[in-house]
Structures are given as C-alpha cells and as structure tokens.
Amino acid sequence: MQVIETLAEGLKREIKVVIPAKDMEVKMNERLADVKDKVRINGFRPGKVPAAHLKKVYGKSIMADLVNEIVREQPTAILAERGEKSATQPEIAMTEDKDEAEQILAAQKDFEFTLSYEVLPPIELKSSKGIKITREVVDISEDEVNEQVLKVAESARSYETKKGKAANGDRITMDYVGKVDGVAFDGGTDQGAELVLGSGRFIPGFEDQLVGAKAGDEKTITVTFPADYPAKNLAGQEATFDVTVKDVAAPAEVEINDELAKKLGLESADRLKEIVRGQIESQYGSMTRQKVKRQILDQLDEMYKFDTPASLVDAEYNGIWNQVANDLAQSGKTFEDEDTTEEEAREEYKKLAERRVRLGLVLSEIGEKAGVEVSEDEMQRAIYEQLRQYPGQEKQILDFFRSQPGAAASIRAPIFEEKVIDHLLTEIDVTDKKVTKEELLADEEGEASDKEAKKAAPKKKAAAKAEATEGEEAAAPKKKAAPKKKASEDSAE
C-alpha cells in the first residue's frame, strides 16, 4: 500500500492511498480459500469447487467487502502512523466511474482513494501557575434565608372562600376566553384557572381589572399584549377576555412552623431553613463558579494563540448562528432592532466560534495530560438527569444515546470540561473576595454586556446558552479525533 501526501497547507491535509491490484487479488484469494470448504454450490461436492468457479461466483462480493473494510479501517491506521489527529472525520473520495469500479472489483486495476482532513494543531502547554483569579463569595444572612422561607410558606399557604369583593392577595378561580378582533385565539381559553391577584402572573392590566370582582361576576377585560410577547401573532395586539368568576378566596395567615414543614414533606421548620439555605448557597455558588470559569478562560485565551481547524469553527459557528436566527424569528425582531447589522453580528459570532474551538482544544490537551477522565458513573448520572427532564420518553432517549455516539459525546464533554476546570483550580492562584449579592449579580450582568453585547446585541439573548458552554463540545473532537453536537464564551463547550 502506498500512502502519498498530496497536500499539506496549514492544517489541511490530503493523502492519496494506492493498493496495487495484485495485493487486492491476493487478499481476495485468501478469503476465497477460507470459504471454499464452507460454501455449498449445486453440482459440486463440499470443498471441491474449482477456484475459478468460486472466484466467478463470489469474487466481486468479496472484493466489495475488502474495499469497505479498507476504507473503514485504514484512515485511522494511516493517521496513527503519521502521528496526526483529524479535527473531524476524514472525507474519503473514490472513483465514481462504473467501468473503473468494475475493474477494481475484478482485481484488474489498482484501488485508489484519497483522504481529505484537517489536523488538530499541536499545542505546547504552558504553566498555569501564572493564572490569577478572584473568586467572589457571598455571605448568606439569616434575614435572606428567612425571606426565602417566607416565600416558600406563601406559595404553600391555604385559601378560604370568602364573600364580597376580591382584593390584592386574594385568589380568584375563573373561566375565561381570550379574543383578538372578536375571534378566540389558541391558548387563550381556560376553565377553573386560579390566579392570586397581585402576583403578576398574567399580562399587565389583567389582574388589576379583577380587583373588586365577586363570585358569579362576568367581566370583559381589555388588555394589550407586550410588544416582545413570545407569541408573534399576539405581540402588541389588543385583546379581550370574557371572564366568569367562579370563586374568591382569602389567604390564610402564614406561619413558619413544624406543621408547615410537614405539609411540605419535611420533618421540621429547622430542616426547611437548612434546605433553603443550601439552595441559596447553590445558586450563588453557580454564579461564582461561572465568573471564576470566565476568568480562567479569558486568561487561557490570552495565553494560547494558534490556527484553528476551519471545519470545527464552521460547525460551531453554524450552531450559534442557527440559535441566533431562531431566537430572532421567535421574537419577531431584526438585527436593526438590536442596534447592529447581520454582517456585524456574523463577524462577532465567528470570533466567538473560533474562541470556543481554541479553548476547547486547550482544555482537552490540559485534561489529557493531567489524566482527567469521565467515569461511567458520572455518565450515568448525567444521562439520568436528561431522562428526568422528559418524563414518559425515557426509552426513546436511552435508545437515542445508544444509537448515536455523538449524543453520548455531547453529555461527556461538559463533564470533562468542568473536571479540567477543577484541576486548574488546584494549580492557579485563587483569591477569595467577599461581595454582596447585588455586587455578584451586577458584575455578572455587566461583564456579559460589556464584553459581547456592544458589538452584537442579539447575542445577549440568542447566544447566551453558547456563551455558558463554550468548550463542552469543542473539547470532544480532540478526544475522538472525529466530529462530535450542540454547543460559549464561558465554556469551551
């Protein structure tokens, strides 16, 4: 077998592979000899079929199998021998001429094919000890815990039917039919709907017009849907709702005690406070983690500059752009509405895609050198979390993961990335800084807007998900030497 490099331009490679016809014939004859004693052909005793007849009957099918095996197995072997890793699955090109194909299957012509691919760039890791980050930490006060416990208690409070007019804080049970231009619209009808007045659950103006209503009242409420309402057919439209009030109930007093805790399935009020505190700590911890990760990635981005495989960048860019386009379509907005242009937005998203790929490759290299691995238990837990999000579809989801290798990779990649970040946190200089809740939230919002929104405003909404996972998916190709799926600036996802 001859392996000839025909293109080496940047990261692009093209390899021509030639297997002489005589070598293909030798392999075919070996296969024929192997099946000689196994086949049954009318008119011949087992094992006595002449080689020429055996070749005439089975030669082409065996050669076709050989061609498929070579194309399936040799690219990996060739890349390994060359010490290269392909950014995506190599493209394989063979002759499309029917006559040539027949000659190859008849072992009368050399079998040739070409491999086209991009290599993953070599990455020389630098010391991470120069990375310095500030980890913002919020102290959780007893008042904040009590405030959240009160909200839990209010959401679980009971209501008692009352006579007279409804006031803010009362719960109304109602039937309603929503109409635009006198025609009922989808999703605008409900029966036995419960609404606590003043909760802000319904569109502005709806709840205010029910204050003072009594059981048995029939009212027509007129409201205008917000201009940015998700349903495009309703956004900015004036609508009427024919409402029949079925019941008015006043809220019972809220008491935070063991009885409330037991109503929520807990043993005591102390346990309720403990759980609420843990939830607050988790929420702030996630925000802190995101900001820590962003600092790490920003500094890695400054440390490593190299060409990235165009195929990976294009795949990441297309994923981001599709997300942006879908978001704009759903909101009914344009780039002009977001104070930018499509050209400017595309340029910014292309930069984001390049960053994601580069950081993904860096994190993958760091993790590989550090021996970071994702265990089967971690994978099982992650898949279980996916199943919990889609009750009733567990079998379909499991079948999908079993049949699609890329699906499992998309689960493994973010876990791998987070473990690499954990590894880096053991090596870099971390300084804790006490901040208030407001400072933690304000800084997070400020960084996002200052960094990306000025140049491509739609990204604030449409690519927020990508920014949060900027390395998860980009890291996968390094591990697999093949393409992976869905994939921010805060991650190499």
UniProtKB/TrEMBL annotation:
Major site of localization recorded for this protein: cytoplasm
GO CC term, one of those recorded: cytoplasm
Reactions that this protein is recorded to catalyse: [protein]-peptidylproline (omega=180) = [protein]-peptidylproline (omega=0)
Enzyme class: isomerase
Cytoplasm in keyword set: yes
GO biological process: 'de novo' cotranslational protein folding; cell division; protein transport; protein unfolding
Record key words, sorted: Cell cycle, Cell division, Chaperone, Cytoplasm, Isomerase, Rotamase
Transmembrane feature ranges: none
Region (Disordered): 435-493
EC numbers for this chain: 5.2.1.8
Single GO term (MF): ribosome binding
Localization, UniProt: Cytoplasm
Keyword set includes Cell membrane: no
PPIase FKBP-type domain mapped to chain residues: 169-270
Function noted in UniProt: Involved in protein export. Acts as a chaperone by maintaining the newly synthesized protein in an open conformation. Functions as a peptidyl-prolyl cis-trans isomerase.
Family per similarity comment: Belongs to the FKBP-type PPIase family. Tig subfamily.
Record's comment describing the protein's domains: Consists of 3 domains; the N-terminus binds the ribosome, the middle domain has PPIase activity, while the C-terminus has intrinsic chaperone activity on its own.
The protein's name in its UniProt record: Trigger factor
Organism in which the protein naturally occurs: Rhizobium favelukesii
Lineage: Bacteria, Pseudomonadati, Pseudomonadota, Alphaproteobacteria, Hyphomicrobiales
Originating gene: tig
